[in-house]
Amino acid sequence: MSQGTVIVFARAPELGRVKTRLAAEIGADAALELYRAFLCDSLELVRRAGARALLAHTGATAFPEASAAEVCVAQRGATFGERVDNAFVDARAHAPDGPLLMIGADAPHLAPTALARAIEALGSAPAVLGPTPGGGFYVVGFAGAPTPIASAFGGAGEAARAVRLLRHHAVAPAVLATFFDVDIADDLIGLILHLELLDAARASWVPPRTRAAIARLGFAVASADGTRGHVLTRR
Q1: Kind of pairing, strands 219-223 and 137-142?
Q2: Which of 187, 194, 207, 222 has its Cβ near the most Cβ atoms within 10 Å?
Q3: CB burial class (10 A; 0-12, 13-18, 19+) of residue 51?
Q4: Does residue 135 share a domain with residue 107?
C-alpha cells in the first residue's frame, strides 16, 4: 500500500483572515501567531505519519510555511465545499494512486500514529471520516477516486451529512475516533490541557511550534471560581 498523500487544507496566514472566531476572543495578532504554528506542526505531523504533504492554500502565492510541503496547490472554487472537492481533484492529479486524505491546520495535536491509522484504514475501506465533537470532521479521505462532498458543508451536522452522502454513492466510510480541533477559546483551553497531558505522558508527538507559541503568548488555563470549569488566562 502507498504511504499515502495528505492534503493540508489551509488559509494563507494573513492577519484578520485566519481563525476569525478565535481571533474575536483572543485578538487577531495572537490568532495569527497560533495559526502559523498550527500550520507548521500540521505539515510536520503528516511527515511523521510517513505520508506525503500536499498543501492546498488560499491565495495565489505561497508563503514561508509552505516550504514544508512536498506539493502546493491554490484552492479553487466559489464555496468552501467546492474548494474541498477541487483540492481532492488536484491532489489526485499529483498522486494518481494510493490513499488520499485531507486535514485542516487546526488539529496539530493529532498524533502522527492516529493519522497513520487513518491511512491504513483505507486499505480495507473506500473512505474514512473522523468526526469532531461539534458535528464537523477533522479528517476525510479516499482509497480511490474522491467522491464530491461539497453539499455536506454548511450548518450543523456536517459529519453526518457527509457520511450519508458517501453512503448514497455506495462509498461506505470507516468512521474514526472523535477528536477535537481548535476554532474558539474553549477549544484553546482544551488544547492547552491536552498538551499538558502529552508532556506528562512523555508522548512522542507534542506539537513543538504550537507549544512554543502558546508559551510565548502567555496563555494558560485556570480553574473557574466556584465551578469545575476552566477559564483561559493570559499574563
Answers
A1: unpaired
A2: 207
A3: buried
A4: yes
User: What does the pLDDT look like over 151-202, one tens digit per residue?
Assistant: 999 989 999 999 999 999 999 999 999 999 999 999 999 999 999 999 999 9
- Whole-model pTM? 0.95
Of the candidates 166, 205, 169, which has an alpha carbon nearest to the alpha carbon of residue 44?
205
Q: Outline where DSSP puts E strands in the chain.
A: 5-10, 52-57, 71-74, 100-104, 127-131, 137-142, 173-175, 219-223, 230-234
Q: What domain range includes position 202?
A: 185-234
What is the three-class DSSP state of 12?
coil
Residues 128 and 222 in one domain: no
* Alpha carbon separation from 48 to 22, 43, 178 (Å, rounded): 27, 9, 21
Per the structure, the count of domains in the chain is: 2
Is position 225 within any domain? yes
